[in-house]
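Thread: "does anyone have the structure for this chain?"

Original post by V.I.:
We have the sequence but no experimental structure in hand. Need at least a predicted one for the grant figures.
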Amino acid sequence: PIKKVAIFLMMIGMEKGRSIIELMDNGEIKVVVSEIRKITPVSQDMQKNVWAEFKSLGYEDAMKPVETLTIIRCLFNGSKIN
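Reply from O.Q.:
Generated one for you, tokens below.
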């Protein structure tokens, strides 16, 4: 799930991604930023799959960062990212 989060944050763009990361606690930030640094070019299929999964969880482009973080945490059964 953490790789999906990293891909998703990169896909939504730097500004949106940063505003979501700023809402995370220090442990979450370390895990997410570490994973983002590991990301290599992501295939179109993988991007489509990640996007589809976040849409199925309820993500919408107009969501506020805190709402998007809630969607992200759904990948971790509603708890903090670990």
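V.I.: this helps a lot. The chain has a mean pLDDT of 95.
O.Q.: and The two ends are 9 Å apart (CA to CA).
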